[in-house]
From TrEMBL:
The gene is hisD. It comes from the Bacteria. One of its GO terms (molecular function) is histidinol dehydrogenase activity. Binds 1 zinc ion per subunit. Keywords: Amino-acid biosynthesis, Histidine biosynthesis, Metal-binding, NAD, Oxidoreductase, Zinc. Pathway: Amino-acid biosynthesis; L-histidine biosynthesis; L-histidine from 5-phospho-alpha-D-ribose 1-diphosphate: step 9/9. This is Histidinol dehydrogenase. It comes from Zooshikella harenae. Zn(2+) binds at residues 262, 265, 364, 423. Its cofactor is Zn(2+). Its EC number is 1.1.1.23.
Length: 435
C-alpha cells in the first residue's frame, strides 16, 4: 500500500508556512457547508418535528413515519443494556466509574466571606437542562456518551437530553447502554445540524436546552457555532488530533499505531510525529507501511495521513516542544524517558499523555479525564469538557445598613461621574447622615 505523508524539517525556511497549512482547520470556513447548515437551522425553526423527520430520512437514510420513531425513553436504554454481553457491560461500567471519580474532583462549590458588614460570595448552581451530541456518522461512540453525560450528572444537571444519529436505523446497543449507565434522561436518534437546531430552539418533541456539548463533524461544529448565543456551547471540536514527541527509543510499531488511532476517526484527523532522531522517523514510516494493510479502516487512515499527517524532524527535544506549543494539539503524547521534566515547557495541549506506556487510546476510553478536548489550536484558550461546563455562578452581595451607607458614597460618586442619576440616588437613599 503506498503511503503519502509529509516530511518537514523544523530548521527549513518554509517550515512555518507548511506547518500552518497542515494545522489549519476552521468550522465555518466552508461556504457550502455554511449555507447548508443555515438552511437546515431555519428549516427546523420553521417546521419543527416535520423538518427533523425529513432531514433525518435524507441524511441518515432512514425511513421514518413520524417523530416518535426517533424518541427513545429510559426503558429502551435499559433494554439495550440488558442485551449487551456481561463482559462488554462491565467494561462500560468500569470506564464510567473511572470517569465519574475523576470528574467528582472538578466540582466547584459555592463560597461566601464577610468583612465589616458586607457579605460577598459566589453561588454555584447546575444548569437545568443540557443537550449532548454524540457522533454517529462514520462510527458509533459509546465512550463519548460517558464523557459528555457523566460530568453533567456529576454537576447536578436534572435533565440530560442526548442526540445521536442512527444511520439506516441500525440500533447500537453499546451507545444506548452507555446512555443508561451514564444516567441520560432522553435520547433522540437524530444527528447533524438538524439535531443541534432542535436542541437550540426546541421543537414540538425536542425540548430546548440551556447548553449543547459534544463533538461532531463539520456540519455539527458549524451548527454549534451558529446557534451559540441562543444556547451555550462547550467548544467547537474539530477532527481529532494526535501529536507525538518521541526521543526515538519507543517501539516504532507502538507510535505508528498511536498515529493510526486518531487518523481512523476522520479524513481530516491530524496525526503528527516529532522527533530529533531521523532514523527513528524512518523506522516509524516503515512500521506504518507494514501495518496499514492490516487495518480495518486502512483507506480512511491513508487519506487522513495524506491530508494532515506529518513527520517533523527537529534538532532537539526542546525544539520539538516549541513546535508542539505552536500547534497546540488536542492530544500530546510525550513518548520520552522523563516526561515530567518536559511538563513545565508545555504551554498548550488538550491532554498530555506521559511516558511510553501511556497510549492516547486509554484516555479515549477509561483513564478518567474527559476525551472531549479542544482541537484546531484552541487549546491555547480552552480546556477539556468538565463538570465546570455544566455549572454556572451567581455573585452574592449583602450589605448591612452601616456598610450600605459607607460604600454607597463611592457608588454615588462614580454614578454621578457617569451621569447616571438614578443609580446615584438609589445608592444615596441608603446613606445615613450621622448626627
Ligand atoms: N473530540 C472528540 O471527543 C471526538 C469524539 C468522537 C468523534 N470525534 C469526531 O467527531 C466526528 C464525527 O463525525 P461523523 O461524521 O462520524 O458523525 P456526526 O454524528 O458528527 O455526523 C453525522 C451527521 O452529519 C450530517 N451530515 C453528513 N453529511 C451531510 C451533508 N452532506 N449535508 C448535511 N448534513 C450532513 C448528517 O446529519 C449525519 O447525521 C469526527 O470528526 C471525529 O473525529 C471527536
Ligand atoms: N479520540 C476521540 C477524541 O478526539 C475520542 C474517541 C472516542 N472513541 C475513540 N476515540
Ligand atoms: Zn480516539
Amino acid at each position: 500500500m503506498s503511503l503519502d505523508i509529509q516530511w518537514l524539517d523544523a530548521t527549513a525556511e518554509d517550515f512555518s508556512t507548511h506547518l500552518n497549512t497542515l494545522t489549519a482547520w476552521e468550522a465555518v470556513s466552508d461556504q457550502q457547508v455554511l449555507s447548508t447548515v443555515q438552511s437546515i437551522i431555519s428549516g427546523v425553526r420553521q417546521q419543527g418535528d416535520q423538518a427533523l423527520v425529513d432531514y433525518t430520512c435524507r441524511f441518515d437514510q432512514r425511513n421514518l413515519a413520524s417523530i416518535t420513531d426517533v424518541c427513545l425513553g429510559i426503558e429502551t436504554l435499559h433494554e439495550a443494556r440488558q442485551r449487551l454481553n456481561i463482559n462488554d457491560e462491565q467494561a462500560l461500567v468500569a470506564a464510567a466509574d473511572r470517569v465519574r471519580q475523576y470528574h467528582e474532583k472538578q466540582v466547584q462549590s459555592s463560597w461566601q466571606y464577610e468583612e465589616e458588614g458586607v457579605l460577598l460570595g459566589q453561588q454555584v448552581t447546575p444548569m437545568a437542562r443540557v443537550g449532548i451530541y454524540v457522533p454517529g456518522g462514520k462510527a458509533a461512540y459509546p465512550s463519548s456518551v460517558l464523557m459528555n453525560a457523566i460530568p453533567a450528572k456529576v454537576a447536578g444537571v436534572k435533565e440530560v437530553i442526548m442526540v445521536v444519529p442512527m444511520p439506516k436505523g441500525v440500533v447500537n446497543d453499546w451507545v444506548l447502554a452507555a446512555a443508561a449507565i451514564a444516567g441520560v434522561d432522553k435520547v433522540f436518534t437524530i444527528g447533524g445540524a438538524q439535531a443541534i437546531a432542535a436542541l437550540a430552539y426546541g421543537t414540538e418533541s425536542v425540548p430546548k436546552v440551556d447548553k449543547i456539548v459534544g463533538p461532531g463533524n463539520i456540519y455539527v461544529a458549524t451548527a454549534k457555532q451558529l446557534v451559540f448565543g441562543q444556547v451555550g456551547i462547550d467548544m467547537i471540536a474539530g477532527p481529532s488530533e494526535i501529536l507525538v514527541i518521541c526521543d526515538g527509543k519507543t517501539d516504532p510499531d507502538w507510535i505508528a499505531m498511536d498515529l493510526f488511532s486518531q487518523a481512523e476517526h476522520d479524513e481530516d484527523a491530524q496525526s503528527i510525529l516529532i522527533s530529533p532522531d531521523r532514523d527513528f522517523l524512518h523506522k516509524v514510516e516503515a512500521s506504518i507501511k507494514r501495518l496499514l494493510p492490516t487495518m480495518e479502516r486502512k483507506d480512511l487512515i491513508a487519506t487522513s495521513l495524506a491530508n494532515r499527517g506529518a513527520f517533523i524532524w527537529t534538532p532537539d527535544i526542546d525544539t520539538a516542544v516549541a513546535v508542539s506549543n505552536q500547534i497546540a494539539p488536542e492530544h500530546l503524547e510525550l513518548s520520552v524517558e522523563n516526561p515530567q521534566a518536559l511538563l513545565p515547557k508545555i504551554q498548550h495541549a488538550g491532554a498530555i499523555f506521559m511516558g511510553r506506556y501511556t497510549a492516547e487510546a486509554l484516555g479515549d476510553y477509561c483513564a478518567g479525564p474527559n476525551h472531549v478536548l479542544p482541537t484546531s489550536g484552541t487549546a491555547r484558550f480552552s480546556s477539556p469538557l468538565g463538570v465546570y461546563d455544566f455549572q454556572k455562578r451567581s455573585s452574592l452581595v449583602c450589605f448591612s445598613a452601616e456598610s450600605a451607607s459607607e460604600i454607597g458614597q463611592i457608588a454615588s460618586t462614580l454614578a454621578r461621574g457617569e451621569g447616571l442619576t438614578a443609580h446615584a440616588r438609589s445608592a444615596e437613599y441608603r446613606i445615613t447622615t450621622k448626627e
